[in-house]
């Protein structure tokens, strides 16, 4: 995504929170942005999962060159069955076969958005392979699963990995097999290898709404307020301005 009029707005996890999504849409109506990127995890956990997904898709249909949706770790059948969207969908439509349409949608979603070759947007984090972005370039999501096991391992890490201060390298995460925490040292190598200035991601809720890592080069946002109905976290989003600087904001 090059030569796009700024500012660009980046949205984190929604997780069925229609209230937070509605606030963001009202904001977009005022700002009329040229580009909005959702970082995935529109569904699961919240009360209005299908409504949120349909709303984001309507935005994409009405303004296809403005709204973009990346693939998060919850844009999968396994997570949807475990965290509620699959059951909510099949209860409403009384036809499990219709969920194949949702899976077909997931298979069209990109894993990475790159802004002016300086800023990268993903759902989770960096993979262990520092050259992986070059290997992904030009590949369609629907064709990725036909490739070798190594590719799927790196894609898993893009949607699941988390940054962590005060560690070195990659270490195993509590989230499950193949998923990693990554430290500032490997993050810097990845960014230098790919000539990047910032990384914007979501995937984690923080009580303050967003959190900076690694000398303000990695921003983690989360766009579902009062997450799960019990947290008091505010929702947040990111702005990329005309100087390709990344700014974190809370949803009002």
List keywords for this structure.
33% helix; globular; 13 strands; alpha/beta; five-stranded mixed beta sheet; Purple Acid Phosphatase, chain A, domain 2
Q: What would you say the CATH architecture is?
A: 4-Layer Sandwich
Extended strand count: 13
Helix fraction by DSSP (H/I, runs of at least 4): 25-40%
CATH class: Alpha Beta
Which fold does the CATH topology refer to? Purple Acid Phosphatase, chain A, domain 2
**End-to-end gap:** 28 Å
Which structural class fits the helix and strand makeup? alpha/beta
**Given the C-alpha coordinates, what overall shape results?**
globular
Describe the structure.
By secondary structure, the protein is of the alpha/beta class. It has one domain: Metallo-dependent phosphatases (Purple Acid Phosphatase, chain A, domain 2). The protein has helices spanning 18-31, 49-62, 77-83, 85-93, 99-106, 132-136, 141-144, 149-160, 184-193, and strands at 8-11, 36-38, 67-69, 113-115, 119-121, 162-163, 170-172, 180-182, 198-201, 210-213, 218-221, 236-240, 246-250. The strands form 3 sheets. Strands 3-2-1-12-13 form a 5-stranded mixed beta sheet, covered by helices on one side. Strands 4-5-9-11-10 form a 5-stranded mixed beta sheet, with no helix packed on it. The protein has a 3-stranded mixed beta sheet with strand order 6-8-7. A hairpin with a 4-residue loop joins strand 10 (210-213) and strand 11 (218-221). The two termini are 28 Å apart. The mean pLDDT is 93.
